[in-house]
Write a structure and sequence with these properties.
Rossmann fold; alpha/beta; 2 domains; five-stranded parallel β-sheet; 16 helices; 9 strands
Length: 335
């Protein structure tokens, strides 16, 4: 055990994750981000199970891949498993494999995720959604380090690093009787909490610029910049979808902005209205100001076509015409 730990720690010192998905989107400079890096480096050199806790879109799979990439298993396979996508016997078969003829449709033997991940890492995403009957079988696999495929009586040894993720409070799920306490304590050796993006605002601008540069490389075009007003909107917004939402918003803004400088009007309406307070000179924005900005943005996206703008806003085109007249909006958009 000591020799294996030294081997892992030797690999860890000065290690850099290989090129790929994990490295590609792992960006940040905030104190919270640096704390995550420190935790990753600490647990990567060990073999214990890890539970990643965070809201949807905080990058739990990315962190799991980072742990794997910085570990002594980095040259082995990493297998992600979505625990919300399957249930019952099918999920058991996916995890542990099955024998030919063990159930309808079992036309051949299969390894299952655990045996396929042998010597590597398996990532069980949204572990809190796993059915209770499967939890007992997973616990046995973790305790005995063996797998029994569906329809078989033979056990197969496995050497797998297990990383789990959840957006729930697993302790509460245990108290609610929906998650086994013995499995919880088996898995939750180390817990890493991933803060939501609203709690690491220092990373919002860094990530925004990164995602814009990625779009520019994708389309082989010059990079686009964010105006000061747009930066203020992005910092004011709470980002309920976290980093995943920010990536989508930057792609949206990049595509819809015809200028090299992205203004707030290129942002999605929910981000724009959620961050309007930041771009007001003073006071809270009135409803009229919010409506005017949304109408202007819709007309810009629709390139002046009122029918299309009305459809974007979800209103009748005659109502849009009345609002344009009411707010005395001038056709300054490009068409």
């Amino acid at each position: 055990m000591l020799r294996e730990r030294q081997r892992c720690e030797g690999r860890q010192e000065g290690a850099r994750p290989p090129c790929g998905y994990a490295k590609d989107v792992f960006v940040g400079e905030s104190a919270a981000f640096r704390a995550i890096i420190k935790n990753i480096n600490t647990v990567a050199a060990r073999q214990c199970p890890v539970v990643l806790v965070g809201e949807t879109g905080t990058g739990k799979e990315i962190v799991a891949r980072q742990i794997h990439a910085r570990s002594c298993r980095s040259d082995k396979i990493f297998i992600p498993v979505d625990c919300t996508s399957l249930s019952g016997q099918l999920f058991e078969s996916q995890l542990f494999g099955h024998m030919k003829g063990s159930f309808t449709g079992a036309i051949s033997d299969t390894l299952g995720f655990f045996r396929a991940a042998n010597s590597g890492t398996i990532f069980l995403d949204e572990i809190g959604e796993m059915a209770v009957e499967l939890q007992a079988k997973l616990l046995r696999v973790l305790q005995e380090c063996t797998v029994v495929p569906v329809g078989s009586t033979k056990s197969y040894p496995v050497d797998v690093r297990v990383i789990c993720a959840t957006n729930k409070d697993l302790k509460q799920v245990v108290l609610d009787g929906k998650f086994r306490s013995d499995l919880y304590f088996r898995l939750n050796v180390v817990q890493i909490d991933l803060p939501p993006l609203r709690d690491r605002k220092d990373d919002v601008i860094i990530l925004s610029k990164y995602f814009l540069e990625r779009q520019a490389r994708l389309y082989d075009e010059p990079s686009k910049l964010l105006s000061d007003r747009t930066l203020k909107v992005l910092l004011e917004y709470d980002w309920p979808g976290n980093v995943r939402e920010l990536a989508n918003v930057m792609e949206h803004a990049y595509i819809l902005s015809e200028s090299s400088v992205i203004e707030p009007s290129a942002l999605p309406s929910d981000v724009l209205t959620g961050g309007l307070l930041a771009i007001q000179d003073e006071g809270f924005p009135t409803m009229d100001k919010v409506k005017k900005r949304l109408i202007v943005r819709a007309l810009e996206v629709a390139k002046g076509r009122k029918m299309a703008a009305a459809e974007l806003l979800g209103i009748d085109h005659r109502k849009l015409a009345r609002l344009i007249k009411k707010y005395n909006l001038q056709p300054t958009w490009k068409g």
